[in-house]
Amino acid sequence: MEPRAPRPSLPGSVYILSAITFMVAMGFGLIGPALPALADMFGVGAAVAGLAVSGFALARLITNVILAGVVGRWRLRTVLTAGLLIQAVFSVLAGLSPDFTLLILARLISGAGSAAFTIASTALVILSVPDAVRGRATSVYFASSSAGIVAGPALGGFVTAIDPRFALIGYGLLLLIGGAAGWFALGSIASLKATSGSDGRDEGDDPAQTSAASSPVGRAVLFQLLREPVFVAVLACQFAQGWVYYGMRVTTIPLFMAEIGLTAALIGTALTVAAAVQIASSLTAGPVSDRWNRQWPMLIGLGFGIAAMALWGVESAPWAIVVGIFAYGVASGANSALPPALLGDLPKGGSGIAVSTFWIVFDIAAVLGPIVSGQLMDAWGYPAAFAGGVVVLLIAVAAVIRARPRPARPLTG
Length: 413
Prior knowledge:
Blueprint: H1 12-30, H2 34-42, H3 46-70, H4 76-96, H5 100-127, H6 134-162, H7 164-185, H8 207-214, H9 219-226, H10 229-250, H11 252-259, H12 264-291, H13 295-314, H14 318-345, H15 352-380, H16 382-403
Helix pairs in contact: 1-6, 1-7, 2-3, 2-7, 3-5, 3-15, 4-5, 4-7, 5-14, 5-15, 6-7, 6-12, 6-14, 10-14, 10-15, 10-16, 12-14, 13-14, 13-16, 15-16
């Protein structure tokens, strides 16, 4: 038997990008407790206050659609830095706004910067690493994002108690630090574009590929990708991520727990435990998929998600909440790390149109998930909402089985 070759190490760019996304996610969590306080300060209702969140998401979605056709023309480090600077400036302006209308406008523009950062950072992670460690790279990156989301609200509560404006201003300052780090620390990959192939080669000199990826709609590359069952599986899993692990996490699940009698403190504790399990699962799933293959870890993760949804749909006893929280955390962690790794395995997975579509699908699901789940709850109760989540996850399972992703490349000499 040939000796196993040393495991390739992750390039420094992955740790830099992970640190930046931790700061961005922590800042995003920082403003969560501040928005209700700002609404009270300006004397606006819940519906108007909700525009500060939904407007941000809508701006992200629109910007993702626009960037799908043009991001391949620019260096990814430039897109990442510009996105962070836009977010930073308009987050500070939101914090200094004299009225809520200007605050919402600033949040809209900030959402556009968020989309640019997300596309560029995801593309950089999947393009700047060897094939054999791409799963580990996406694990570290998305676990860092999850850790930031957990840390942010705790800090945000203290900041909001002083002045809710400080949360938006602090978010802007964190983004400025992230933007500076991205520009100066990522110099070694400054020339990388989103039109690169999965192995990191810059294909910008190929007119056919460049025109396809950077055309107004990117039809040629997108149609080619959509004929790939692996890409369809990636999109199905990302849709599940937005619907089940983001949209239902912030609406359906907390409402369900409140309905069965859990206090706000217990609900917060349960979601924090789920987030901690998610981080551990994310850090484990990627390396396993590098040594094994992408398909089975993805299917196992989806299975845990189906189990959690099905359990909560039929049982509300304390033991079911505890078991479901752990299963949900395992599923969410695996599903955050593995689809982007699988996207990077595709020959054109690092193209601007591929990465933009990846996030467009997430944003659409994150908008639809809470709305449809809420309608199902109102009409038929919580079991129907959880059944909807099961259906979304089963579609992802079918897509992954159909795709039959190739095994990870062995680490032998």
